[in-house]
Amino acid sequence: MSQRSQPYSLDNYSPSESIGYLLKRSGILLSTAVDRGLAQYDMTHAQFSIVFKLLHGHARTAAELARDSMTDTGAMTRMLDRLEEKGIVQRMRSSADRRVVEVELTDKGRQLADDMMRVAVEVLNHHLRGFAPEEIEQFKGFLRRMIANA
């Protein structure tokens, strides 16, 4: 990328207008709104993301959940402890490799997942009000491109 085509320079950089700040701020606002909606289920956005990943097969083990969530294994263990206490997940040692801890949703976890998913959908729809469908697709494309550039 040539110097001229770079979007930021020391002359034009403003922290409150940087893409990083705006992404972080919007993510915090989304997460906070989801937390408020999930309070009725005694769940947090972070806990719901684990439920969602298990429900859709994005992860099967504690290590995969930690990697996918970009968190350390100790923090993931504590979150799984809380979800297990609530009867949402259960952990078991893999029969193929005893070092591996597999995680799955309980019946209660699967039942709550649909209701909690409604909360996430409502929050996203609220935050995306006023956007045209093609703008949302374009926005997602921009975000995917940023992720690919990382």
From TrEMBL:
Coiled-coil boundaries: none
Source organism, top-level taxon: Bacteria
Gene Ontology molecular functions: DNA binding; DNA-binding transcription factor activity
Domain HTH marR-type per the UniProt entry, residue ranges: 16-148
Keywords from the UniProt entry: DNA-binding, Transcription, Transcription regulation
Any Pfam family: MarR
InterPro entries: HTH_MarR-typ, WH-like_DNA-bd_sf, WH_DNA-bd_sf
Protein name: MarR family transcriptional regulator
